[in-house]
């Protein structure tokens, strides 16, 4: 049961992201702020940290390809960045302590890095022309806040689910 | 031996990089439509997405309802004031319509650029990273959707179809920074002024209408609609209202800022307009270079 729960949560988050994106460009006092939902990659980072780096990279590749084909139409962007972020997360965690607060911070920082790389890429291919300061103010900051909130609410659930799977696996082995 | 392994990894990485760059540049090219594996993935994800979208749309609808409930009193007052005008306008409209029909019969001209067959569609997803302004609909080529069709809401034009698969279609919204995205538009008034909607002002959140003849009077507050002269969109689809008029970069033509009439922030149901009259296929379409003004039979006879 728990075995199938991990991939199905990933699929669910993948499908929910665009629904949350529809709420996105919000206007506060004439300023427009973009909130980019990054639920899936946050979840994959958690898998990478608490479960298995290799498994997370595989999931990252799979969902990255889906993301590229379905939404972006540029194949090879998310399908590289997702596994890369998962790999980084799995590598960092070997050095530091696995407390929930620490992992939450790392996840949010990694999402910020992902967002920044994407901005640089889209700037390079002329899809966007907004200057760096605007990007930081209207996109990066609100995105970080929104995703940090999301992780504060659901981070413990992810951890609980993944730990249940790890325990189950340990029992199977023994 | 470890040294050898390291080299192997390095070569693998390099090959991967080359492959990646090739793949990205392949997909960045101006492709006319999606390849078969892409279509399969798009359709499968699209079906799953439309299942999730139904309850999500429902919840969003509930919130919208609550929101509009709060404004009911204000709105009611305004609407009552307009209701009185409405009866007069309605009578005038029916009269004009019948007049128009009679005159058309007289001229023996049945086809109009205004007419279109609507295809109703539900928005199932919005590009989550929001770099490109794109939405995905649950109707595709099996429902009669084709590339470049106009997409609108009840309030006005929102964009055009860019990619079609059998069960989904992708729409590029009007406010994109893509420089090749143009819509032929006209300003309604005593004298109709034609121009092109090209580009979007990020700071003002308004569309820019360029190439308006500088001798024509264009004022703030006038309505802008699609002209149908681009060859793809139907005529008279509302686009927005002019908020400011200034001269173009070189001072030869006028340009105007247009506030879009459609609400882009929450799009859930849209209409795809399939134009009834002949649709041309220039570089915007499938680019077949077919000669539409001289039908093929006639030109063959000429050759003989």
UniProtKB/TrEMBL annotation, chain A:
Keyword set, alphabetical order: Cell membrane, Cell shape, Membrane, Transmembrane, Transmembrane helix
Membrane topology label: Multi-pass membrane protein
Record InterPro entries: Cell_shape_determining_MreD
Parts of the chain that traverse the membrane: 31-51, 78-96, 108-125, 140-162
Localisation: Cell membrane
Cross-referenced Pfam families: MreD
Family affiliation: Belongs to the MreD family.
UniProt protein name: Rod shape-determining protein MreD
From TrEMBL, chain B:
InterPro entries per record: Cell/Rod_1 (IPR042177), Cell/Rod_MreC_2 (IPR042175), MreC (IPR007221), MreC_beta-barrel_core (IPR055342)
Superkingdom per UniProt: Bacteria
Compositionally biased intervals (Polar residues): 281-290
A Pfam family annotated for this UniProt entry: MreC
Keywords for the protein's UniProt record, in alphabetical order: Cell shape, Coiled coil
Domain Rod shape-determining protein MreC beta-barrel core, first and last residues per copy: 123-273
Region (Disordered): 281-304
Coiled coil: 86-113
Function, as annotated: Involved in formation and maintenance of cell shape.
Similarity section: Belongs to the MreC family.
Alphabetical list of NCBIfam families matching this protein: mreC
Stated name of the protein: Cell shape-determining protein MreC
């Amino acid at each position: 049961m728990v075995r199938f729960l991990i991939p199905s949560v990933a699929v669910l988050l993948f499908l929910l992201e665009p629904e949350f994106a529809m709420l996105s460009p919000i206007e506060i006092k004439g300023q427009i702020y973009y909130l980019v939902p990054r639920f899936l990659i946050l979840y994959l980072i958690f898998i990478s940290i608490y479960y298995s780096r290799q498994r997370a990279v595989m999931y990252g590749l799979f969902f990255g390809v889906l993301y590229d084909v379905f939404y972006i139409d540029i194949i090879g962007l998310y399908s590289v960045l997702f596994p890369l972020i998962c790999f980084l997360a799995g590598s960092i965690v070997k050095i530091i302590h696995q407390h929930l607060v620490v992992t939450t911070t790392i996840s949010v920082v990694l999402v910020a890095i992902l967002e920044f790389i994407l901005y640089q890429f889209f700037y390079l291919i002329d899809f966007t022309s907004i200057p760096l300061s605007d990007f930081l103010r209207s996109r990066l900051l609100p995105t970080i806040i929104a995703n940090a909130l999301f992780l504060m609410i659901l981070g413990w659930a992810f951890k609980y689910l993944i730990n249940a799977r790890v325990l189950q696996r340990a029992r199977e082995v023994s | 031996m470890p040294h050898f392994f390291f080299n192997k990894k390095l070569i693998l990485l390099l090959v991967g990089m080359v492959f990646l760059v090739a793949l990205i540049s392949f997909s960045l090219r101006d492709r006319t439509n999606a390849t078969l594996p892409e279509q399969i993935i798009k359709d499968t994800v699209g079906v799953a997405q439309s299942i999730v979208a139904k309850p999500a749309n429902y919840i969003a609808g509930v919130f919208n309802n609550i929101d509009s409930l709060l404004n009911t009193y204000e709105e009611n007052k305004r609407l009552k004031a307009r209701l009185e005008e409405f009866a007069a306008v309605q009578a005038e409209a029916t009269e004009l319509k019948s007049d128009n029909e009679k005159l058309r019969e007289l001229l023996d001209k049945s086809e109009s650029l205004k007419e279109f067959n609507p295809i109703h569609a539900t928005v199932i997803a919005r590009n989550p990273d929001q770099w490109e302004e794109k939405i995905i609909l649950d109707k595709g080529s099996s429902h009669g959707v084709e590339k470049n069709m106009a997409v609108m809401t009840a309030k006005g034009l929102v964009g055009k179809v860019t990619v079609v698969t059998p069960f989904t279609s992708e729409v590029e919204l009007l406010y994109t920074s893509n420089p090749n995205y143009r819509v032929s538009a006209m300003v309604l008034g005593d004298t109709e002024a034609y121009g092109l909607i090209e580009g979007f002002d990020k700071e003002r959140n308004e569309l820019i209408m360029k190439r308006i003849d500088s001798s024509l009077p264009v004022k703030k507050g006038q309505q802008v609609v699609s002209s149908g002269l681009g060859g793809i969109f139907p005529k008279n689809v509302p686009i927005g209202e002019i908020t400011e008029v200034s001269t173009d970069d070189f001072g030869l033509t006028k340009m105007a800022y247009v506030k879009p009439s459609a609400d882009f922030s929450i799009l859930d149901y849209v209409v795809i307009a399939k134009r009834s009259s002949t649709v041309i296929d220039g570089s915007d379409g499938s680019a077949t270079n077919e000669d539409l003004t001289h039908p093929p039979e006639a030109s063959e006879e000429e050759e003989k």
